[in-house]
Amino acid sequence: MPRNVLLENGGISPSLVWLFIVIAIVVFMLFIVIISRYKKCPSDKIMVIYGKVGSSKDGTQRSSRCIHGGAAFVWPVIQGYEFLDLTPISIQVDLTNALSHQNIRVDVPSRFTVGISTEVGVMQNAAERLLGLKLVEIQELAKDIIFGQLRLVIATMNIEEINSDRDKFLDAVSSNVESELKKIGLRLINVNVTDINDESGYIAALGKEAAAKAINEAKVSVARADRDGAVGAADAEREQRIKVAKFNSEAIIGENEAKIIIAESEAKRREREAEFLKRATAAENIQAAKAKEESYAAERDAENARAALEMARQEADIIVKAEIKKREVELEAEAQAEQIRRIARGEADATLMKMEAQAKGMREILIKQAEGFEQLVKAAGGEANDAIRYMVAEKLEELIKIQVEAIQNLKIDKITVWDSGGAGSADGKTTTANFLSGIIKAVPPLSEMFDMAGMKLPDYLGKKTDDTGTETKTE
User: Fold this and answer.
1) How far is CA 455 from the centre of its chain?
2) Are 64 and 80 in contact (CB under 8 A)?
3) Which of 164, 186, 207, 404 allows an S-S link to 181, with CB 3.0 to 4.6 Å?
4) DSSP characters over 417-460
5) Which residue ranges make up each domain of the chain?
6) Is the dihedral of CA 430, 433, 438, 439 positive or negative?
7) How far is 27 from 283, CA to CA, in rounded Å?
8) Parallel, antiparallel, or unpaired for β 38-40 and 79-85?
């Protein structure tokens, strides 16, 4: 009863309480979801948000949005995110047999340090081309680009520039490599070229030449210092002895023996000075000769190295030209062979088509002839022999004409017949008659033509005689 009264007097019902609780839970869950989708980007990474990320300033749809050193809200369902690691990547590039501007192959072992760039445009390239790749795959991709650009830079420089002017070489390599790395989102951090070698020994020859020149200059300087020291010592000794002699001479003035001793001493001193001076001059000449000999030897080695380099360059030019000429001849021969094969194939196809057409035409002719012969047999009442006789009879005139033309072109300028006018042969014919009869017999008789055709010659056209001379009618 009191509870009902409370509800009637404006109290809160249980359904409203549960509604408030559900609303509070939903709000709390939404808050948790919002907090969980708010992503922070560490300083050593780039956060790439992809999916529906909006449009750029020019109105085109962007594929991703890159954030470095900040945070952003990632919408669920319509957006996703990944991180790109900014850790530097060290790449060992052992370039060998790279062709320089002088056509000399050099080996340039070096180490490059690269990393993903945080520059705005370049960072977008990294998001489009490197997202999802492993560190090894990124390293191999950068290594291929570095190999190509390093060969390109070496091909534009001489050996002297690469070996002596390292700053210029490194600047060219850094400029070319970094411009290509930016296209995939990377930046060049450091380049370290450890050593440069060439297969022909040109760089070693340059080093030997410089070392020999430095050694010779040092030896000349030492010889000059020794000479100046010897001259100074001789001058000091001379002044000292002069002063001592002067003091001694003042002390023993008037004493002849002392003068003789002093004179002898002076003579010995001069003799020894001359000897020492001679030794010093000889030593100086010997040192100068040795220095010249070493200098000449170094120049000879340098000239030999230059000659070997020139010979190698000329051999390389000859070999390359010969290889190019050989390749041109091979390509020309292959082209001619291919042309001959195509012509032969075309002629074979044409011949085949021609023979097929002729065969088809002959087949049609034979079919038509067979159809005509079939009609002819039907017209002859089904008797094939009668049909054949009809065909031969139709061609009889043409056959006789061919037989007559066999002797038509026989040219006889003159015929001489010796005829005595007597009885002639046993059959009563004269020689002239026998001659004319032989000529006439050259044409096949009509009876034989008709017999060949399977027909009978009428009696009024002639009779045949058998071997005994008896006349018989033609059948």
Assistant:
1) 85
2) no
3) 186
4) -----S--STTS--HHHHHHHHHHHTSPPHHHHHHHTT----GG
5) 13-83, 87-199, 204-327, 387-407+429-472
6) positive
7) 105
8) unpaired
Buried b (16+ CB within 10 A) or exposed e, 276-304: eeeebeeeeeebeeebeeebeebeeebee
Q: Measured between alpha carbons, how far is 359 from 172 in angstroms, rounded to an integer?
A: 75
Contacts of 470 (CB under 8 A, 6+ apart): none
User: CA nearest 438: which of 415, 457, 454?
Assistant: 415
Rounded to whole angstroms, the Cα distance separating 344 from 328 reads: 24
CA dihedral 93, 96, 100, 103 (to 10 degrees): -170
Please tell me the distance from the alpha carbon of residue 358 to that of residue 351, in angstroms, as a whole number. 10
Q: Please check whether residue 227 is in contact with residue 284, taking contact to mean a CB–CB distance below 8 angstroms.
A: yes
The reported pLDDT for the residue numbered 104 is 80
Rounded to whole angstroms, what are the CA distances from 350 to 61, 356, 362, 364? 60, 10, 18, 21
Print burial letters for 378-416: b (CB count within 10 Å at least 16), e (below 16).
eeeeeeeeebbbbebeeebeeeeeeeeeeeeeeeeeeee
Strand partners, 99: 105
From the list 151, 169, 172, the residue with the least C-alpha distance to 160 is 169
Calpha distance 396→400 (Å, rounded): 6
The model's pLDDT over 408-447, given as tens digits with 9 standing for 90+, comes to 666 666 666 565 555 555 555 566 666 656 655 554 555 6
For 364, counting Cβ atoms within 10 Å of its Cβ (0-12 exposed, 13-18 middle, 19+ buried), the class is exposed
Between 471 and 392, residue with greater pLDDT:
392
Task: Quote the tokens at residue 338.
Answer: 């291919």
What's the pLDDT tens digit per position in 91-130?
998 888 777 787 788 888 889 999 988 888 888 888 888 8
Rg (CA), the chain: 62
One-letter amino acid identity for 300? Answer: R
Kind plus residue range of the DSSP H or E element containing 196: none
DSSP structure string for 246-283: HHHHHHTTT-HHHHHHHHHHHHHHHHHHHHHHHHHHHH
CA angle 469, 470, 472 (to 5 degrees): 130
Which CATH architecture describes the domain 87-199? Answer: 2-Layer Sandwich (3.30)
- Distance between CA 246 and CA 238 in Å, rounded? 12
| Structure token digits, residue 417 | 């017949």
